[in-house]
Specification:
This protein is of the alpha+beta class. Helices cover about 25% and strands about 25% of the residues.
């Protein structure tokens, strides 16, 4: 296996080259770990590279279906040297149905996280000023196990821009059935207090968390994604899927195993489970 070294010019003087993102995407698709990045790269430059990266992934993964937020808790932000979350883009073929079977080594550094998707029900969300107003523009919540792929070699020291440049490590994820959401006080509380447990084949709890680990309230993440897009002259559209970040710790993948995520107090009808199988 040949490891290619990507270098970007000094951030203080050079703009990202037009093919930086395409080169990263090529290595990402071939599962060749990236062994270098410009430590001085700015977030603005990283997002330009991300746009190139996503464009290069579209022939394989399809069109844009939504967005993801990464680093949605202070500990993760501190580890990557940033003061706010990061935004990535979700493409159609990244999202699989619960119960899907996939290679355990689907990427360079694959892992799983218990996550949550909210689906935009109205473009009026672009005008929302509060969590309550945002909730009126959400029509469903969807259980989600994200399966990211950190495409850098283990010895590479990472920061926020490096992670943003590779689309915040988005690669795959499995989704459950949409659960209809209503703009009520009950749902405001439900989104903040539901519990998520990641379970192994035998039912052992590998990690757990609850909704308020997402910037204190999942709707805060929705508004943050909206605002980050607005800063680039973009808007959310009806039907957009918003992955809100890790609720559990990262869990390594292993062949011939099944990972389940159990959501309690999210669906009014009772606990919900989704799963992914690794071969």
């Amino acid at each position: 296996l040949v490891f290619l070294v990507l270098t970007f010019g000094p951030a203080v003087t050079l703009a990202p080259a037009a093919d930086d993102g395409a080169k990263l995407a090529e290595q990402f698709l071939k599962k060749i770990p990236v062994t270098s990045h410009d430590q001085a790269m700015t977030m603005e430059q990283a997002m330009k590279i991300q746009a190139q990266f996503v464009k290069a992934l579209k022939p394989t993964f399809g069109e844009v279906v939504g967005y993801k937020a990464g680093l949605t808790n202070p500990i993760a932000q501190k580890a990557f040297g940033v003061a706010q979350p990061l935004r990535g883009t979700l493409l159609k073929k990244m999202l699989l149905k619960s119960g899907a079977e996939i290679e355990a080594n689907y990427g360079s550094r694959p892992f799983c996280e218990g996550d949550l998707i909210l689906r935009v029900g109205s473009a009026e969300i672009n005008k929302a000023k509060t969590q309550q107003e945002a909730l009126k523009c959400i029509d469903a919540v969807i259980p989600f196990i994200e399966m990211p792929d950190l495409p850098y070699a283990k010895e590479v020291k990472l920061n926020g821009p490096a992670l943003a440049a590779v689309n915040v490590a988005a690669r795959f994820g499995v989704m459950g059935s949409p659960i209809p959401v209503k703009a009520t006080e009950e749902w405001m509380n439900r989104l903040k207090t539901f519990k998520l447990q990641a379970l192994d084949d035998k039912g052992n709890v590998l990690s757990e968390g609850q909704g308020n680990s997402l910037l204190g309230d999942p709707l805060n993440v929705v508004l943050w994604i909206r605002d980050s897009l607005k800063a680039e002259g973009k808007k959310l559209n009806k039907g957009d899927l918003l992955s809100l970040g890790s609720i559990t710790k990262g869990i390594p993948t292993a062949p011939k195993t099944t990972l389940r995520a159990r959501y309690t107090d999210l669906d009014p009808k009772g606990p919900v489970e989704i799963a992914v199988k690794f071969k």
